[in-house]
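Researcher: Good morning. I'm working through a list of sequences from a screen, and I'd like to move beyond sequence-only analysis. For each chain I'm collecting a predicted structure so we can compare shapes side by side. This is the next one on the list. No need for commentary yet; just the structure.
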Amino acid sequence: MGPIDYGDRVKIALMDSGIGLLAAAAAVRRLRPDADLVLSSDPDGMPWGPRTPEDLTERAVAVAEAAAAHRPDALIVACNTASVHALPTVRARLEPGIPVIGTVPAIKPAAAGGGPVAIWATPATTGSPYQRGLIDDFANGVAVTEVPCPGLADAVQYADEAAIDETIAAAAALTPRDVRAVVLGCTHYELVAERIRAAVQQPGMPPLVLHGSAGAVAAQALRRAGAAVGAAAVTPGLTVLLSGREEQLPRAALGYAEGRMLAETSPAL
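Model: Good morning. Structure tokens for this chain:
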């Protein structure tokens, strides 16, 4: 049986401060291999975490509008921090013309497993009212430990192997030995998920379950875009916007399986 022709092309845009959007982009590509992708990030303004909410929102709106200029069928805000602070403003600017999908830490499915659960997140998100609200709403009665991961997102962004090892080890040391699930509360962390698993998994304990958001937001974006899921008969396109400039995929992105997969399936790179 040959590839399925789904008719109209679908274009999904993703935005983030940096390469954390790769995980969701790769998830979209796996679900809909012919999807054209627009990856819009802000290397000139990152990291977003230390910025004021107002400043972060201004940067995020600029990145979103750069992506929107390419007329996508849906936009994924593939950044936990931007989803917390800027999602309402981005939606107000772009919807209903372009559906906007935010990224929420997967606390609900992690807690459904019974716990104990650890939530790895940036220092700005750890202990925030937003994250505490999600814990109260979805993890009632489950033991949850919030683990700050200073420097991990930056280490992943620049594919700094030594810094990745160091920051993962530091966060693992703060993670209770009996946790059964880890929520990856920053999209960058999904790019090093297996390294996190190896650092946290304890001998003799049940296999550790990692909960990211990439798969769920990718599926939701395709639903909002009205796109079917499956194989396709055409070569997908990939547009990379760095602080609004159309360029190639950053070299650091090719240090991760998700980045290499996007490069290999988009020959224009």
